[in-house]
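Backbone-to-sequence.
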């Protein structure tokens, strides 16, 4: 995207939201700096995958609103990486800005190519088995009520958990078609497969929980 000049589009959280609905999600802005969060009691820093994830969450919200099941008025979504200290959060935020600057120049992209793994390279089987991810979410209603959720999985997030999600999605489309939500178009996993996929992921070993705080 940087090579083609489309990197700026990636930073737009409303990129996948139909233009006719964008006024419903105007409050969404990408996280650019470090900050302390009282609900998590932790320092938060920009997360490298948040731009892509936020675009998909907001598209899910837009499709649900079209179906008459909106997530809520003025729905907003923010995603960050939890760290232990303010200094670390600040360093990650600064590093993100530096990375954006490198991607913006041909010389910087050439440098990055020398530093990142080449196609076909990746972690060992042992490293993938020891990997894990945990996403903790807090939702707040307009009346102040809050709920807590968790999505987690044992295994490398990119090379284990993502593959598991893709396989279970394929199985849902192939074997559970009659139980999937109705509707077509460019859908997201939640709007295409909904509870069917969530149940499959739980049976496959992932943790997906939600409850009051």
């Amino acid at each position: 995207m940087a090579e083609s000049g489309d990197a700026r589009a990636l930073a737009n959280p409303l990129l996948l939201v139909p233009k006719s609905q964008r006024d419903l999600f105007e409050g969404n802005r990408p996280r650019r700096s470090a900050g302390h969060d009282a609900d998590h009691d932790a320092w938060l820093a920009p997360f490298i995958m948040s731009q892509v994830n936020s675009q998909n969450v907001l598209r899910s919200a837009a499709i649900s609103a079209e179906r008459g099941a909106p997530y809520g008025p003025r729905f907003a979504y923010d995603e960050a990486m939890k760290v232990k200290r303010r200094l670390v959060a600040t360093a990650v935020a600064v590093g993100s800005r530096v990375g954006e600057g490198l991607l913006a120049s041909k010389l910087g992209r050439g440098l990055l190519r020398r530093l990142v793994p080449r196609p076909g390279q990746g972690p060992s089987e042992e490293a993938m088995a020891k990997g894990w991810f945990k996403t903790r979410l807090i939702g707040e209603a307009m009346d102040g009520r809050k709920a807590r959720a968790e999505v987690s999985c044992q295994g490398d997030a990119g090379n284990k958990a993502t593959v598991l999600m893709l396989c279970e999605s394929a199985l849902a489309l192939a074997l559970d078609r009659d139980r999937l939500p109705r509707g077509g178009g460019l859908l997201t996993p939640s709007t295409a497969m909904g509870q069917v996929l969530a149940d499959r992921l739980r049976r496959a070993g992932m943790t997906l929980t939600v409850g009051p705080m």
